[in-house]
Amino acid sequence: MSQIAFIGLGHMGLPMARNLLKAGHHLKVFDLLPAAIDELAKEGAQPASSALDAIAQADVVISMLPASRHVEGLYLGADGLLNALKTGTLVLECSTIAPQVARNVHHAAQERGIELLDAPVSGGTAGAAAGTLTFMVGGAAKVLAKARPLFEAMGRNIFHAGPEGAGQVAKVCNNQVLAVQMIATAEAMAMGVANGLEPVVLAEIMRQSSGGNWTLEKYNPWPGVMENAPASKGYSGGFMAELMAKDLGLAQETAQASGNSTPMGALALQLYRLLLKQGKGKQDFSVVQQLFTEQ
Ligand code: NAD
């Protein structure tokens, strides 16, 4: 079994690390928040006092951080982990970040003989807990072959998207679709309920009709429609609106770089920025429902 350093134990990282522990791996874990480290230490992980401490004996490093700047801060620069890792270490960088930043980290890793994959995920916190995440992997196929058993301990579908950064490109495409679907579902739910329909009835009709989509299947934004959805828990847990706004910004940058027109993604970004201005950035991204129900 591998000696794994797991860095970033938030909504996603903590359940992912837990599944690696359950699969019998040795984990040394670090987060800026000590409570997350303590929680995993109770379940058998070794607590680390810093990222450098976490990687001291590691063959594998897995990181799950909020955004590009955190990943650059962790790996690059004089104090970055890439300068401290031994040659041949395998790094699985699972955060959702800018494709160009992922490529920069890849190139810095290659120069130091470190094997790295960009491997952002889809499936939400429920998928992370159940070990059913989708991994979208960018990097060399032979490195993915080596990493596959680790991904399989945390996920169900492991896709090789292409070379360095390709996992991140796939991820921003996917999250742009997710945001547009969430907004479309939220505005339709509000319209139907305002016109006298029961939310549960409307949700089920659309779920089984041509408007059916992932948000209607798994993540309805109307409170009370799905018992386990963040909407029914005061929009807590799940995927923060500020992270969705970040991903929509990455999608716009990606479109800009290739000269693509993405009007739906642009509008979705504007609506999420509005939510952030209303102070709802820390709530789950399905809180976009409130744009259509509250004055
Ligand atoms: P989160 O904010 O809950 O967790 C991030 C964790 O990283 C926090 O605990 C934070 O303390 C820690 N952290 C930040 N900088 C650090 C550093 N330098 N060293 C150690 N720890 C550090 O975010 P999350 O929801 O777990 O998301 C993580 C990533 O996964 C993001 O890029 C997000 O876009 C992506 N993602 C999230 C979901 C979801 O449903 N939440 C789904 C798919 C992808």
TrEMBL record:
Recorded superkingdom: Bacteria
EC number(s) stated in the UniProt entry for this protein: 1.1.1.31
InterPro entries the record matches: 3-OH-isobutyrate_DH-rel_CS, 6-PGluconate_DH-like_C_sf, 6PGD_dom2, 6PGDH_NADP-bd, HIBADH, HIBADH-like_NADP-bd, HIBADH-related, NAD(P)-bd_dom_sf
Pathway the protein acts in: Amino-acid degradation; L-valine degradation
Keywords attached to this entry: Branched-chain amino acid catabolism, NAD, Oxidoreductase
Descriptive protein name: 3-hydroxyisobutyrate dehydrogenase
Originating species: Pseudomonas cuatrocienegasensis
Alphabetical list of PROSITE patterns matching this protein: 3_HYDROXYISOBUT_DH
Family recorded in the similarity comment: Belongs to the HIBADH-related family.
NCBIfam families tied to this protein: HIBADH
Positions of the 3-hydroxyisobutyrate dehydrogenase-like NAD-binding domain: 165-289
